[in-house]
Design brief:
13 helices, 417 residues, Alpha-Beta Plaits, single chain, 2 domains, 5 strands, 7% strand
Length: 417
């Protein structure tokens, strides 16, 4: 949405109406407020300095006005400038810009008033101050274009009224002043338009780049997340499994916290694909994955598709005995799902899994990721040799609780369906 709006604004070539649509205009004001206020606070003191300095030649150009020009510059224009600087601390951009525009207009009208009130022969030279104020407001201060147009039109109208009022002026002098004022104001308005247009287009390009980078970042995060997920089952993939296993060996082993690995293999899965087809085989893996996902209720545990019809479960803060019990529960749950499989050669007619357990507290210890996987893998193939649909935890299987009614001898299922 925002991208389309930005492209639409960049393709638009406004001549007079430079404002953005309301929501984008609000964002523009918010994003550029700090830079705008910094510019105002830098240029106002500069303008006030030269405006007050012009009171020095006033004593020779406007001798009949005496102290009035200096008083107007110090007691009227200077406070206006200070208030404009103070308004930058407020978030009301409209109030700030309108006040600055009115202040610039008042600053230009004051010399025009001096020229109208003074009868001194050099009074027309005061028009130079008016022209400089016009350039200062339109180009240096860069008041918003719509206000620049209004300010410039009122300045030209005030100069025209002054020249009509001063009938004592030579026709050539009056014409020169009128043309100079009109030309100066025109040049200032054109420059103001170009400066604000360039500033706004630069902002649009920056905002578009920000949006593009933000979307790219989101895409990268999404891609990174998807790169750790198995697309078929929705479980973690082998890459995520390897990363998590390294983390556990680094953190848990150093802290003496046990963890365990379960390797589960779907029994006679090749025969299942031969009998039912590969789409049905994929559906079977998805159902088994759902059962495994339900067995890892803790956030710190990880169920992953290890490869093909093999699955792996990393159980944190878990002993070998606890891991065997969890593995048996998974074995029983898969068998209880009664996924039809009538192409087995062992007399069963449902899908089952064999599980091997590897744990850091097993006899012999665990020193590397390969040790954990090797221990679970050895026990997995032992379970298959012993008849499948069972759990094998190696020596740990003999350490089951004698009071547990579901326990059985090593290499035998804890509860056959």
């Amino acid at each position: 949405m925002i991208r389309k709006l930005l492209h639409a604004e960049l393709s638009r070539r406004p001549l007079l109406r430079l404002q953005f649509p309301p929501m984008l205009e609000m964002r523009y004001e918010a994003d550029t407020r700090r830079a705008r206020c910094w510019h105002i606070r830098l240029t106002i003191p500069l303008g006030l300095f030269y405006y007050v300095v012009f009171s020095l030649p006033d004593r020779w150009i406007l001798p009949d006005l005496r102290w009035i020009p200096l008083a107007c510059r110090l007691c009227l224009v200077t406070p206006i400038g200070l208030i404009a600087m103070w308004l930058c601390g407020l978030e009301n951009a409209v109030l700030r810009e309108r006040f600055i525009s009115v202040g610039i207009l008042v600053t230009a009208l004051i010399p025009i008033g001096f020229m109208a009130a003074s009868k001194a022969p050099l009074a027309p030279y005061t028009m130079l101050v008016v022209l400089l104020v016009s350039l200062f407001g339109n180009v240096t201060m860069r008041i918003r274009f719509r206000y620049a147009c209004l300010f410039s039109a009122m300045t030209v109208a005030a100069v025209a009224a002054l020249l009509l009022w001063r009938t004592d002026l030579n026709t050539g002098v009056a014409a020169m002043l009128a043309i100079s004022a009109l030309a100066c104001v025109t040049f200032g308005v054109v420059a103001n338009n170009q400066l604000e247009r360039a500033e706004r287009r630069s902002y649009l390009h920056q905002l578009l780049e920000t949006v593009r980078v933000g979307e790219l970042s989101i895409d990268k995060e999404r891609y990174s997340a998807l790169s750790l997920v198995d697309p078929l089952t929705g479980l973690a993939n082998r890459r995520a499994f390897d990363r998590r296993l390294r983390e556990l060996l680094h953190t848990h082993t150093a802290a003496g916290i046990p963890f365990a690995l379960l390797l589960a293999d779907v029994d006679h899965f090749k025969r299942y694909n031969d009998r039912y087809g590969h789409p049905a085989g994929d559906a079977c893996l998805v159902r088994v994955a759902d059962i495994l996902r339900g067995a890892t209720g803790r956030k710190q545990d990880l169920a992953a598709r290890y490869g093909g019809e093999e699955f792996a479960i990393l159980l944190t803060d878990c002993t070998a005995l606890d891991a065997i019990r969890i593995a048996q529960a998974i074995c029983d749950a898969v068998a209880a799902a009664r996924i039809a499989h009538d192409n087995r050669d062992d007399g069963e007619d449902f899908v089952s899994v064999s599980i091997g357990v590897g744990a850091t507290d097993q006899e012999g210890g665990i020193a590397s990721p390969d040790d954990v996987v090797a221990a679970a893998d050895v026990n997995l193939y032992a379970a298959k040799r012993q008849g499948r649909n069972r759990v094998n935890g190696g020596a740990s299987s003999d350490a089951t609780d004698p009071d547990d009614e579901t326990s059985g001898p090593a290499g035998r299922p804890f509860s056959r369906p």
